[in-house]
Amino acid sequence: MASFTLLIPTLISLQFYLLSLAFANVNIDSTLSTADNGVWRSPSAHFAFGFRPFNNDTDPKTKLFMVAIWYDMIPDKTVVWSAKTDNKLATAPTGSQVRITSAGLTLAGPKGDSIWTSNLEGIIVSVGSMLDTGNFVLLNQNSEKLWQSFENPTDTLLPNQSLQPGGTLTSRLTDTNYSSGRFQLYFEDGNVLLSTLAWPSPLKYNSYYVLDASGAASTLVFNESGDIYAKTTNGTTIQPQGSQWNSTDLDPEVNYYRATLDFSGVFTQYYHPRNSTAQPGWKIMRYVPDNICNEIFYQYGSGSCGYNSYCSMEKNRPTCKCPYGYSLLDPSNQFGGCQPNFTLACGADVQTPPEELYEMHAARDFNFPLGDYERIQPYSRQDCRQFCLQDCMCAMAISGGDTCWLKRFPLGNGRQQPISDQHFVYIKTRVIRNFYPGANMELPLSPDSKKEYKAKLFLLGPLIGSLVLNSILLATVALFFLMKPKVKRVPITSSSPLETNLHSFTYETLEKATWNFKEEIGRGSYGIVYKGQLEAGSCHLVAVKRLDRLAQEREKEFRTELSSIGRTCHKNLVRLIGFCDEGMNRILVYEFMSNGTLADILFGQSNPKWNVRVGFALGIARGLVYLHEECDTPIIHCDIKPQNILIDEYLNPKISDFGLAKLLLSDQSRTTTMIRGTRGYVAPEWFKNVAVTVKVDVYSFGVMLLEIICSRRSVLMMESGEEEKALLTDWACDCFMEGKIDVLVENDEEALSDYVRLQKWVKIAIWCIHEQPEMRPTMGMVMQMLEGFVEVPNPPSPFSYVPCLN
Ligand SMILES: *[C@@H]1O[C@H](CO)[C@@H](O)[C@H](O)[C@H]1NC(C)=O
Ligand SMILES: *[C@@H]1O[C@H](CO)[C@@H](O)[C@H](O)[C@H]1NC(C)=O
Ligand SMILES: *[C@@H]1O[C@H](CO)[C@@H](O)[C@H](O)[C@H]1NC(C)=O
Ligand SMILES: *[C@@H]1O[C@H](CO)[C@@H](O)[C@H](O)[C@H]1NC(C)=O
Ligand SMILES: *[C@@H]1O[C@H](CO)[C@@H](O)[C@H](O)[C@H]1NC(C)=O
Ligand SMILES: *[C@@H]1O[C@H](CO)[C@@H](O)[C@H](O)[C@H]1NC(C)=O
Ligand SMILES: *[C@@H]1O[C@H](CO)[C@@H](O)[C@H](O)[C@H]1NC(C)=O
Ligand SMILES: *[C@@H]1O[C@H](CO)[C@@H](O)[C@H](O)[C@H]1NC(C)=O
């Protein structure tokens, strides 16, 4: 009896002794922690179990680890398994521990909180072991396997590992991110399938590959020799079908093998030489499907590549490319999809004609066969291209034969395809206009030109021959130069002066229409404006402007200028209906604007709402873009200010008095007008002996934009203590520099709630009032920035400008 009781412990210890020869045992209560670099190796040291970094963070507070098994004798240390719960990778912060208890494997955080367990109930583990096959097992007293990593695979199968129905492989997210990814291998109805997942949910889309075992597959086997096949219920074996799944010589003595469902969705068998002196690295042996780029074809999901990118097989791997004008969303992840380098926008703010914003780039060698929103037929290639250009929804058009497919974002399932005469791709891209041609965003700081300017004044002083107080000198010099600013003259091309549809009115008609110039509705820079009615009783109201101060020698140019004004047609310009040119009388007849001037509205009793103001700014900018960039010959307005913007019954702003500057520019009497009209709006170059360009309008627009934003005049008398607010341009710059833009629109809740636009527009305004004309953006550029198509760089600092000369 005594001998028998003694025998039992001996047998048990003998059994343990034998076991430890076959595998490296890990006893109960053994732990690994993220702090020490400890691992549990297999007896031959081919495989190791332990912590691996999940991210590359160096800060211990954010650094994460995962519990993994990897090939330990190769330089890559390739991970073949990682701990997951419900298909979600278990990540552990610094200070976490893995422990073997009688209940199984547990991963606990630094405070002892459970992160992952091997999830066993009602069993008693007596030992764990890392086997030489790469399988980590938990055994009971009788050396029966209670749990094995082989039965809980992640994305990889190893030789001697098999997958039973119910088992799955889920790809990782990217090459370097071990989180669960977008593809899955699984059993269904006795076959083995590959499907895309509706990431991050577990929903499977249609399969893109089937290992067809006629519904009889019972296991997916990776046998010891390195072969992979499905075993059927009646014992036959079925090889994966595919032209790239070639039978090869297998030699597990020479090579390591692994089969991984890659993050790109391809199920690949790799080999790696065991001999450490050979060239290291995993090589592709065979894979299914043949061409994943073409196999994934489903209305949902992006395909193997991410959205807006297209896929092609290169060197046995899918690779993803961005269409022209697009770039990778995440430059480090080729499979993460592409985004256009621009915003494709529809909506009220965007009224620039599409031809100006976009162009269609032609390509031939790819397709996005799904995701059409229109299919038009018959339709020529040219029409197809044009249709997409015009349609703000359209991102890309494909023309094939006489059919036109219009595509919208996001573009999925993109793939390369052979070039054919039947297939043309048109990609909508932004017209590229640099903010400043030839300059990058690193703009030079503006020199302290205020100082320079003053120096120049003093140099000029002796020329004028009076040594007087600085302020008087300043005014004199200003006057001197105001008398002869140079406006770029544009050669007159038309020989016949009036080839427009302008009416020529007799003086008598207009006298009658205005009830003998009775009802004065305004006094502009160029004369008095009267209300009129062309036909008695009609509702066709007109504004009749009598030009005074027109120099005699300008008579001939009057008609030439009129013809250029008459040719303009834009909804943000006041339309010239006709004119009268009889003897000394020069009269212009305009459409009548019922809501008065912008100045009336903006500085009147009730401030217009933010939305309305936004509409004003956009409309005026559009009108100016037209004058500067879209007319046959650019028209410089020279006197942009709220008094010259009229508002129609639908609150559309319309620029008036354009085209007149040239007529009156050298008129002596203009100087006084100019000084009055320019106060606060005039660009500094007017006071210098330099050419005046369209940039003077940009300057004035900038001042006016600030007025529109802040609903106040550019120059105000302020009470003491608030003097810094007197000059709006100065004050806005100060507020911007100090990051206090909100004080500019105090109490304007709507403006404050549109803060991104508010901030952007203040920046745009500051760019516009830059002292140096060449630093100011063009109106076209201003328009794009207002519409949000182009980023607005921060204006240079320190900032110096001469807002006005008073
Ligand atoms: C991996 O992807 C997941 C899901 O997008 C993300 O939360 C995680 O931060 C990524 N990890 C790394 C290391 O990039
Ligand atoms: C971490 O850095 C290494 C080396 O730069 C890189 O190979 C690896 O992909 C990075 N891992 C992650 C998750 O970003
Ligand atoms: C491979 O698996 C079989 C049974 O599944 C087992 O008998 C054999 O010992 C394993 N081979 C190795 C090298 O462990
Ligand atoms: C593995 O499978 C191949 C054929 O599929 C067979 O020739 C080989 O004998 C198998 N090896 C083992 C160890 O079963
Ligand atoms: C085994 O099953 C497969 C698929 O169902 C079938 O094609 C094959 O003929 C069967 N073989 C035998 C010996 O029954
Ligand atoms: C498999 O064989 C085909 C045809 O012989 C060949 O084109 C292909 O490159 C091979 N695939 C691999 C992965 O070696
Ligand atoms: C490893 O490869 C080298 C050269 O390729 C060879 O000389 C050596 O014998 C190989 N070692 C083994 C263990 O096969
Ligand atoms: C799009 O942006 C990428 C990255 O900024 C750039 O490399 C590429 O040249 C751009 N393409 C076009 C057409 O602007």
UniProtKB/TrEMBL annotation:
Q: Which Pfam families match?
A: B_lectin, Pkinase
Q: Name one GO molecular function term.
A: protein serine/threonine kinase activity
Which intervals hold domain Bulb-type lectin?
A: 30-151
| First-tier enzyme category under EC | transferase
What CDD domains does the record tag this protein with?
Answer: STKc_IRAK
Q: Where is the Protein kinase domain?
A: 515-790
Would you identify the family this protein belongs to, as annotated? Belongs to the protein kinase superfamily. Ser/Thr protein kinase family.
Query: What is the protein's given name?
Result: Receptor-like serine/threonine-protein kinase
Record's GO cellular component terms: membrane
Membrane topology per record: Single-pass type I membrane protein
Supply the alphabetized keyword list.
ATP-binding, Disulfide bond, EGF-like domain, Glycoprotein, Kinase, Lectin, Membrane, Nucleotide-binding, Receptor, Serine/threonine-protein kinase, Signal, Transferase, Transmembrane, Transmembrane helix
Q: What is its EC number?
A: 2.7.11.1
Q: Which residues form the signal peptide?
A: 1-24
What is catalyzed by this enzyme? L-seryl-[protein] + ATP = O-phospho-L-seryl-[protein] + ADP + H(+); L-threonyl-[protein] + ATP = O-phospho-L-threonyl-[protein] + ADP + H(+)
User: What Gene3D superfamilies is this protein classified in?
Assistant: Bulb-type lectin domain, Phosphorylase Kinase, domain 1, Transferase(Phosphotransferase) domain 1
Where is this gene product found?
Membrane
Residues that, per the record, bind ATP: 545
Q: What is its main location?
A: membrane
